[in-house]
Amino acid sequence: xxxxxxxxxxxxxxxxxxxxxxxxxxxxxxxxxxxxxxxxxxxxxxxxxxxxxxxxxxxxxxxxxxxxxxxxxxxxxxxxxxxxxxxxxxxxxxxxxxxxxxxxxxxxxxxxxxxxxxxxxxxxxxxxxxxxxxxxxxxxxxxxxxxxxxxxxxxxxxxxxxxxxxxxxxxxxxxxxxxxxxxxxxxxxxxxxxxxxxxxxxxxxxxxxxxxxxxxxxxxxxxxx
Length: 225
What we know:
Layout lengths: L1 H27 L2 E7 L5 H12 L5 E7 L4 H7 L5 E5 L8 H7 L10 E5 L16 E7 L6 H4 L1 H5 L3 E5 L11 H11 L4 E4 L9 H15 L7
Parallel strand pairs: 1-4, 1-5, 2-3, 2-4, 5-6, 6-7
Helix pairs in contact: 1-4
């Protein structure tokens, strides 16, 4: 009971800031995606491929969340995309209060799409609204079949899941059909995309989905969140 009483004000404060962030994104017509995964899923590589496919189509920015180091931000910056690093110094997630000051480092009028690469964790990031329009998760076949059922919240709250490293399927025990069934059981509305970030394969439908979401936001159509 004590933990619940302590956590409630924290989440309430976060949600208030998230509403402020969301309104700011709405005014600028920016579609914001919260990208989540466990460590080692290939999330940053997937993001790099996404940036490559959207180059010249959408104006993008990235917020990189890590506990320590700027290594992922440096990888993204090499693609010519504006990026802001947030180091949580121990916290296992980003929250709306961390996002708010990071926005000051972007020219929001020059962005169509802002992707927040959250801290690698399948638990904590799902608890905190950042003000995003949608959430997506990266799940690699090398993680096995059990992750959706063990960590259902992140998949229940996502609109899309990129199943990464499908090129390694022959070398794993992953039953991808069962994995997809479990994901759909948790969230029947999930959009599932099989991709290989290493080989740059399968990204077409994912890119189309993102572009559609950005266009809907520009037209002022309602978004999740």
